[in-house]
Amino acid sequence: MTTDATSATGGQTLTIDELAARSGVTVRTVRFYGSRGLLPPPVIGPRRVGQYGPEHVARLALIEELQQQGMTLAAIERYLRQLPADLTPHELAIHRAVVASWAPEGVDTVSRRELEQRAGRALSAEDVRRLAAMNVVAEAQDGTFRVDAGLLRLGVQLLDVPLSHEAILAARKVLIEHSRAAARELSQLFRDEVAERAAQDVKSLSAHMHPLVVQALLTTFQRSLREELSEWVTGSGTD
Q: What is the pTM of this model?
């Protein structure tokens, strides 16, 4: 059945060639991922041409991040099967940021041109200021930028969210304060749990707990945020 791809994706539509070029993969790779169920099928547009949207770009970025973490194709399939099918591009980007947090911090130094290439769009002075407020980039005195590679894609997507610079700073402060408090309490809980165990058991637990705890925190936060937003929208009388 032919469907309007723009309404289905809520954003720009791409052909398979455009999707591959934007994501840095081949058309063959896109088709392969689709055949394995890693990507949802495209919307069929005029002339029976498949049309892809922001969710496909976000899923390809997540798959790339999982591969960089050393996960096999089978492991990636298992990971993606556990995710809700209706995740938005923003939610997929959050998952990618979480996956990136499993690895050691990666900060690159790039020129303004390289920054825009990585962002996939032109960046105004206000855009850069907002990214800096999110701690995604930091401009050096020589005009280069230190970029948190794991957060850049998410930060760029958040540029389109209608929040003021002050609101971004306040939100970042809230997130940092509460995440540090949660991390502190969880760390104490795990320290008490492994206090009497052998050193090898402690190392094994530490290696496994980081991604599991981060994933659990992400899932809990997403559910809580959806509930809060739902109550807010319902209470305000907005459709």
A: 0.49
